[in-house]
Amino acid sequence: MGSIAEGAAPAQDLRFCRSADGTRLAWATHGSGPPLVIASCWLSHLQYDWQSPVWRHFLESLGHIATTIRYDERGFGLSDWEVDDFGYESRLRDLETVLDQQPHEQFALMGMSAGAPLAIGYAARHPERVSRLILYAPIGSGCFAKSDDQDAETALLAIIKTGWARKEPIFRRVFTSVLIPDATEEQMSWLDELQRMSTSPENAMASRLARADVDVSGLLSQVRAPTLVLHARDDRAANFAWGRRLSAGIPDARLVCLDSKNHILLGDEPAWPVWLREVTEFLEPERSTHSAAAGNGHAAEALAVSGREEEILGLAAQGLDNAQIAEALVLSVRTVERHLQNVYAKAGVSGRAARTAVVARYLAHH
């Protein structure tokens, strides 16, 4: 059986934060270009995904077209495993927490598999921040490979309980065969092992039970961002009907049907370049805007800031610290910090001198 080996991974900036209930969340960034946030499926590990023949082509390709921001959900990967609450609202607050760490006012958001309901919920709740929405192999209700047959569902839970943590992959292979039925033995072995590395049997069971009650159908009409839905026609883990339903319910959505049986597209199958081309073209307006800003940012004499950013800079120029600015504008300190980080990014400055630099630049033009 293949195993996940240590190896040199492309540079990523790995960090941690804590959600509202104290759960430690791991998140990472890599690549360059406009920001793209990924609400991933439950099966992820920020470190080991880089060595995976199942996931690595996604990470490398996305890093070429965007500054890619990923995180491990609560109970999985490098995030805390000691978790009691896998409910939808807690998971959505986790996503909000990770995004509050980012310096970007707006970003594209990709919801993969069971991450799609989170992406939809966030886009509906924070339309001002999501510039574009991508849903890949989306599950709008329940969990992957959900069965309406209670006996079958009970059997799947028993498989998780009995075989998830065992060294032998025979039980985990049931799920692997659903997720990537056309994979090679090497690819299947890697995904077998990734399941064991990503979480505990208890978390896998609790998460599956919690997701069975999730249904975001009522939120679809509230999504305002242009949306791209990509779904394999014969996906065995997420029925293609969900792709049709979501794309029909979201006002500005387009559905791309992929010719595959795999829930996770493999790098050597014909559907993969189609997926990559569609995503690249969909993000092109973001890439063009980002390139123009990067080209002009350093040459421009005055910073192109929003009204709120100008208010914050004005108060910073008066000598107020972040807490005082937050109090004056009735904002949270974290929101003030996010706006300042966005200004630093626009100015192309970082480090301890960033605040001084942008304040000086602001004063020079006021």
Secondary structure blueprint with pairings:
Blueprint: E1 13-18, E2 24-30, E3 35-39, H1 56-65, E4 67-71, H2 88-100, E5 107-112, H3 116-125, E6 130-136, H4 150-163, H5 172-179, H6 185-198, H7 201-211, E7 227-232, H8 240-249, E8 253-258, H9 271-282, H10 284-297, H11 307-317, H12 322-329, H13 333-347, H14 354-363
Parallel strand pairs: 3-4, 3-5, 5-6, 6-7, 7-8
Antiparallel strand pairs: 1-2, 2-4
Question: Mean pLDDT, rounded to whole units?
Answer: 86
Q: Name the helix and strand elements from N-terminus to C-terminus, one letter apiece.
A: EEEHEHEHEHHHHEHEHHHHHH
Number of helices: 14
Helical fraction: 40-55%
The CATH architecture term of the largest domain is 3-Layer(aba) Sandwich
Using only C-alpha atoms, the radius of gyration works out to 21 Å
Which stretches of 5+ consecutive residues score pLDDT under 50?
A: 1-9, 296-301
